[in-house]
C-alpha cells in the first residue's frame, strides 16, 4: 500500500455532491461547482505519512485541495478509502462519484469558514424541520405508515439521549424543548471538526438529525435510513408508479451519499492504525 498501487418529498433532494475544481475535489457541494469529467492523468495511487497526517500521492504528485492546500487526512483508514476512490476511476475521473474526497476537501478548506460551535448549531437546527417529526392526517394509510415506521426511531432517540422529541401534524412542526436541543449540542460537541462535517452532510441528505444519529450510532442501516427519509415518496410511488430510471437513480445516489457520509464520520474518529496491506480492485 505505502508507495504501491491500489490494483422526504416536501423537501427537495440535493444534487450529487461535487468534487470541486481541479484534482483535489471540493467541499460539501456548497462552495464549489462540479467540474466536467477529465481524462485520468495518473497511473499509480499511494498514501504516505507526513507531519500533518496522511497524504495521497498521484504518481509522484501530492494531492491538493481546491484552495491549493496539501491534502492531508487524520487517519490512515480514511487515507486508504480516499486513495481507493481515486484508484477506482478509469479512463475519466468522475468527480461527482468521489464523496469522501469531497468531504475531506470541505474539512480542509472550510469554504463557509464556520467553527465547531456553528457546525453544531447548524446540525441541531434541523430538529425544527426533521423529516420524521412531520406527520400527515390524510390519507389514513400514509398516516398509519408514518406512525408504524417513524415512531420506533423517534422512541429510540428519546430513550438513547434521554430527551423529548415527539411529532406533529401541524405545518409548524413539533415544539422541540430547548433542553432537547442542548442535549444534542452537548452530544455533538464530543465529535471533532472533521466528523461534524460528515454528520452535517448526512443530515442534509436525509433531512433528519434523528435518522442521521441512528446511522452514526449503528441503530439503523443506510438502506433503512434512506427508506425512512423517503417514506412519503415511496408511498406515492407504490400507489402511482414511478418515472422510469429516475426513481432508481435518485435512490442509489442518496444511498451512496448517506453511506459515504456515515463512513467518513467513523473513519475520522478512527484512532487505530490500519495494518499495511495491498488493496486490490
Automatic annotation (TrEMBL):
- Record's Gene Ontology CC terms? mitochondrial inner membrane
Keyword Metal-binding listed: no
Signal peptide from the UniProt entry: none
Q: Where is the composition biased (Gly residues)?
A: 21-30
InterPro entries named in the record = ATP12_ATP_synth-F1-assembly, ATP12_ATP_synth-F1-assembly_N, ATP12_ortho_dom_sf
Where does the record say this protein resides? Mitochondrion inner membrane
Membrane topology of this protein: Peripheral membrane protein
This protein's source sits in the domain of life called: Eukaryota
Q: Does the keyword Membrane apply?
A: yes
Main location, first listed in the record: mitochondrion
Question: What are the BP-aspect GO terms?
Answer: mitochondrial proton-transporting ATP synthase complex assembly
UniProt KW keywords: Chaperone, Membrane, Mitochondrion, Mitochondrion inner membrane, Transit peptide
Residue ranges for the region (Disordered) are 1-34
Q: Any transmembrane segments, and where?
A: none
Q: Any idea what job this protein has?
A: Plays a role in the assembly of the F1 component of the mitochondrial ATP synthase (ATPase).
Subunit details:
Interacts with ATP5F1B; involved in the assembly of the F1 component of the mitochondrial ATP synthase (ATPase). Interacts with FMC1.
Family statement: Belongs to the ATP12 family.
Q: What is the name of the protein in this document? A: ATP synthase mitochondrial F1 complex assembly factor 2
Q: Which organism is it from?
A: Halcyon senegalensis
Whichever gene encodes this chain, its name is Atpaf2
Amino acid at each position: 500500500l505505502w508507495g504501491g498501487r491500489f490494483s422526504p418529498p416536501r423537501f427537495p433532494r440535493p444534487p450529487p455532491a461535487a468534487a470541486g475544481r481541479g484534482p483535489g475535489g471540493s467541499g460539501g457541494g456548497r462552495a464549489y461547482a462540479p467540474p466536467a469529467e477529465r481524462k485520468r492523468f495518473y497511473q499509480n495511487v499511494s498514501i504516505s505519512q507526513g507531519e500533518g497526517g496522511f497524504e495521497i500521492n498521484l504518481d509522484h504528485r501530492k494531492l491538493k485541495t481546491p484552495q491549493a492546500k496539501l491534502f492531508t487526512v487524520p487517519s490512515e483508514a480514511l487515507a486508504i478509502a480516499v486513495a481507493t476512490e481515486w484508484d477506482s476511476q478509469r479512463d475519466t475521473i468522475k468527480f461527482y462519484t468521489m464523496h469522501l474526497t469531497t468531504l475531506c476537501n470541505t474539512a480542509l478548506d472550510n469554504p463557509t469558514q464556520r467553527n465547531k460551535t456553528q457546525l453544531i448549531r447548524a446540525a441541531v437546527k434541523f430538529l425544527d424541520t426533521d423529516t420524521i417529526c412531520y406527520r400527515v392526517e390524510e390519507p389514513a394509510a400514509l398516516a398509519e405508515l408514518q406512525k408504524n415506521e417513524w415512531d420506533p426511531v423517534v422512541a429510540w432517540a428519546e430513550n438513547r439521549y434521554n430527551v423529548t422529541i415527539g411529532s406533529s401534524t401541524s405545518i409548524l412542526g413539533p415544539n422541540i424543548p430547548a433542553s432537547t436541543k442542548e442535549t444534542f449540542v452537548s452530544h455533538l460537541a464530543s465529535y471533532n471538526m472533521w466528523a461534524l462535517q460528515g454528520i452535517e452532510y448526512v443530515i442534509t441528505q436525509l433531512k433528519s438529525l434523528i435518522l442521521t444519529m441512528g446511522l452514526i450510532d449503528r441503530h439503523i442501516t443506510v438502506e433503512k435510513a434512506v427508506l425512512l427519509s423517503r417514506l412519503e415518496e415511496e408511498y406515492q410511488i407504490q400507489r402511482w408508479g414511478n418515472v422510469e430510471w429516475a426513481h432508481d437513480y435518485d435512490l442509489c445516489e442518496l444511498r451512496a451519499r448517506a453511506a459515504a457520509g456515515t463512513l467518513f464520520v467513523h473513519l475520522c474518529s478512527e484512532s487505530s492504525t490500519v495494518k499495511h496491506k495491498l488493496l486490490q480492485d
